[in-house]
Write a structure and sequence with these properties.
The structure holds 2 protein chains of 2 kinds. Chain A is an all-alpha fold. Chain A contains 17 helices and no strands. Chain A is about 70% helix and about 0% strand. By secondary structure, chain B is an alpha+beta fold. Classes of the chains: A mainly alpha, B alpha+beta.
Chain lengths: ~525, ~280
């Protein structure tokens, strides 16, 4: 066999069909796998969201029994975080980081393959847990014990799934860090790297720091459930609040893991379509680093009502508010980048502007939540639901759409349908706000989250929110159609599709980017 | 000059915001505050809201202007600047100052919220799957103890009967407290974590098995104040409301007397039963 392979040479012949995808070590193939997987998960998580909103359409129990409703909210959160948003960003990293730093591939090609193929296993564990006796986990995506100790086999499957997702993320991050630090083209110093690469470098460090902590928490819950330990069981001398500290030490950096690559994409897109260099590149890098660092010291703001000494509450309040400063710097810098540019408004730019507007709203409600006395009122209400959907849906997801439209021409060699792209943006924008803006009112007026039924004064806003959510869900089918249409054909994309683009994939590579690119590194001046 | 004007309009907005907070109570906002703490929370929320609105208008005013004027389709040529140290320092420092302004009153409220000393009445609230248990452990009413369960009938939840006015926010036994007294609530739980929350009183505190936490409130206006469990606690999480009834001191004393009478009557019946059983053997 070895002899035959030698005769045929190497690298250029690879298996076709299913084996191509199972055995691939090519960063573009693996990137595509990641992106397709995350898109599929977006629809699984979205289906659960539709179930939740359908139950909440009117007061009373209509379609989901309370226990099933809790499973829906739990798995919606887990699938969206671990199955949709995080793998989508790793998909972007796989495609874009080698192209943007002039590297031929990722540093660890086989590790890359494995970190992807772990994901379907984890997803399968989560989805099939709905069909085991006792049903899927129903203790919330945060799986606080002792409630998570009560669940059936579905809870163990969920915990294993989280473990597997975590392993995949850690391996992916190590790969990304190694690639960025060792495989940049000659002349591409750290402070010349594109912002997307910076965003991912810092994200990858955060992942390596916090995913093992989550693994620790998950392991302790597993042994509490199955081997009679009492880490989080007060009756056995354990501490249920300790779980929350450990979980949120992972959980808060986790939200920045989902948003820092988004900051990178938005910086690329805004600069490109303003035809002007990014304003304050250095301070943008420092702002991302500051946000990442601060995000490790604010975890207990998720626990203001768990009971903490005054000094603890004050420390976490001040630290949390401080994150507003570097985040503000980023928004001001984007605005200054647009200022006196020569802007055009193709779909990527629309999603980027939509991102800034809605992310700022989510940031403001974040400041509201950071103020301890106010948080005592809004914690665990729909206000918080509105807050984190503003930063994760119109934040992370809008940035993913922006990036997808931005790079689709480079990936496929075809232009996407601009008219349909604009429709996708405007429908998403309208329905998103319809679904989530009214949830601020619901939360302030006193509607707790994670309830399948509610008092009558919340009825009209819930109906509006549900209609918005259905509209938002349906709109995303349009995205799938646009992507398929773009992959199958369309107007030929120019090598430098966007007039204002400056990064290596646009200036040095044809569209579509060849299967093997940058076999000899470009020189960056 | 310009900055001064901006600051002046900003502060007037803030003042307007905090005053408008006194009157408005609607389904768009926090419920009408009934305790000094809830009032402070309400006012601080309004203040933060107005500050955020002012910044929003400022930032997106600039961005909106830019989007309209600096577009290629109107022939605008791109400038090439990409740095300005002074501007960057200014927009780092101003947010810091705004955040200090927000956290100053918040810090005072946090300290006040934590001061549960010298309570007139202490009540222990215990979370169960899925109801609340109340024990009056100090002050007038000491010794009273009961469970408080959702009283909304199942057929309303199952859409087989029209829903009542207080659908899901009604219980068989309300927690009763007098007006003008400092009430300290101790929270704990029997099985999983719950949270005791009454929005109008500005109190939300997790009830954690194996731990005791506390919070306090003092209400001047008699009335029924409704809240809910705020921490996911299993399938009936949405069906364990927290209902507090605040009465004038006189009425409260009557309620206590009534409760104690039934309690002692029940005790007598119990002892009689036990003695009866014993004599049989």
């Amino acid at each position: 066999m070895a002899v035959i392979q030698d005769v045929h040479g190497h690298a250029h012949d690879h298996p076709t069909g299913i084996m191509r995808w199972l055995t691939t070590t090519n960063h573009k193939d693996i990137g595509t796998l990641y992106l397709c997987f995350s898109l599929a998960m977006l629809f699984v998580g979205g289906f659960l969201a539709m179930g939740i909103r359908a139950e909440l359409f009117m007061p009373g129990i209509q379609i989901l029994e309370p226990e099933v409703f809790n499973s829906f909210t739990t798995l919606h959160g887990l699938i969206m975080v671990f199955g949709a948003v995080m793998p989508a960003w790793v998909g972007f990293a796989n495609w874009q980081i080698p192209l943007m730093i002039g590297a031929p591939d990722m540093a660890f090609a086989r590790l890359n393959n494995w970190s992807f193929w772990l994901l379907p296993i984890a997803a399968l564990l989560l989805i099939t847990s709905f069909f085991v006796p006792g049903g899927a986990a129903a203790g919330g995506w945060t799986f606080y014990p002792p409630l998570s100790t009560q669940g059936g086999m579905g809870t163990d499957m969920m915990l294993f799934a989280v473990h597997v997702f975590g392993m995949s993320s850690i391996m992916g991050s190590i790969n990304i860090i190694t690639t960025i630090l060792n495989m940049r083209a000659p002349g591409l110093t750290l402070m010349k790297m594109p912002m997307f690469v910076w965003g991912w470098l810092i994200t990858a460090y955060l992942l390596v720091l916090v995913m093992p902590v989550l693994a620790g928490a998950v392991t302790m819950v597993l042994t509490d459930r199955n081997f009679g330990t009492s880490f989080f069981n007060a009756a056995g001398g354990g501490d249920p609040v300790m779980f929350q500290h450990i979980f949120w030490f992972f959980g808060h950096p986790e939200v920045y893991i989902m948003i820092l690559p988004a900051f990178g994409v938005i910086s690329e897109v805004i600069a490109t379509f303003s035809r002007k260099p990014l304003f304050g590149y250095t301070s943008m890098v420092y702002a991302i680093a500051a946000i990442a660092l601060l995000s490790c010291f604010v975890w207990a703001h998720h626990m203001f009502t768990a009971g903490m000494p005054v000094t603890g509450q004050l420390f976490f309040m001040y630290a949390t508010m401080l994150i507003g400063v570097p985040t503000g710097v980023k928004v001001f810098n984007w605005t200054a980048t647009m200022w006196r540019g020569s802007m055009t408004f193709e779909t990527p730019m629309l999603f980027a502007i939509g991102f800034i507007v809605l992310f700022v709203i989510g940031g403001f409600s974040g400041v509201v939540c950071a103020v301890v006395p106010i948080d005592v009122q809004v914690q665990d209400t729909y206000y918080v639901i509105a807050h984190f959907h503003y930063v994760l849906v119109s934040g992370a997801l809008f940035a993913l759409f922006s990036g997808a439209y931005y790079w689709l021409p480079k990936w496929t060699g075809h232009m996407y349908d601009e008219t349909l792209g604009k429709w996708h943006f405007w429908l998403s924008m309208i329905f998103f706000n319809m679904a989530f803006f009214v949830q601020h009112f619901l939360g302030l007026a006193g509607m707790p989250r994670r309830i399948p039924d509610y008092a009558l004064q919340f009825a009209d806003f819930n109906m509006i929110s549900s209609i918005g959510a259905f509209g938002f869900g349906l709109t995303q089918l349009l995205f799938v159609y646009i992507v398929i249409k773009c992959v199958r054909g369309g107007e030929k994309a120019a090598d430098k599709t966007w007039e204002g683009a400056t990064t290596l994939e646009w200036t040095h590579l044809p569209s579509p980017a060849p299967y093997h690119s940058f076999e000899t590194p470009p020189v960056v001046k | 000059m310009k900055v001064g004007k901006l600051m002046a309009s900003l502060s007037s907005l803030v003042v307007l915001g905090s005053y408008s907070g006194l009157a408005i109570s609607s389904k768009y906002n926090l419920p009408e505050p009934q305790t000094p703490i809830a009032q402070e929370i309400y006012d601080q929320h309004m203040m933060v809201l107005w500050i955020c609105l002012a910044i929003f208008i400022g930032v997106f005013g600039v961005m909106g202007y830019s989007i309209v004027k600096h577009r290629k389709s109107v022939g605008y040529k791109a400038a090439n600047f990409h740095e300005n140290m002074a501007v960057e320092v200014i927009w780092t420092i101003i947010p810091v100052l705004i955040l200090i302004a927000i956290s100053w009153p918040a810090t005072k409220t946090v300290i006040a919220m934590k001061d549960t000393s010298e309570a007139d009445i202490t009540i222990k609230a215990t979370g169960y799957q899925w109801m609340w248990g109340y024990d009056y452990i100090q002050g007038e009413g000491e010794g009273i103890s009961f469970y408080s369960q959702l009283s909304t009938p199942q057929d309303q939840i199952r859409n087989q009967a029209p829903k009542g006015e207080d659908y899901l926010l009604e219980v068989d036994n309300r927690v009763v407290v007098p007006t003008g007294k400092k009430i300290r609530i101790l929270m704990t739980a029997n099985d999983v974590i719950h949270a005791w929350w009454v929005p109008a009183l500005g109190v939300k505190q997790d009830a954690i098995p194996g731990f005791i936490r506390d919070a306090w409130f003092k209400v001047e206006k008699p009335g029924i104040y409704r809240g809910q469990c705020a921490e996911l606690c299993g399938k009936e999480h949405g069906f364990m409301p927290v209902i507090v009834e605040v009465m004038e001191q006189e009425k409260y004393s009557q309620w206590v007397a009534g409760k104690q009478k039934t309690a002692s009557a029940a005790a007598i019946v119990n002892t009689a039963l036990v003695e009866n059983e014993a004599s049989k053997n």
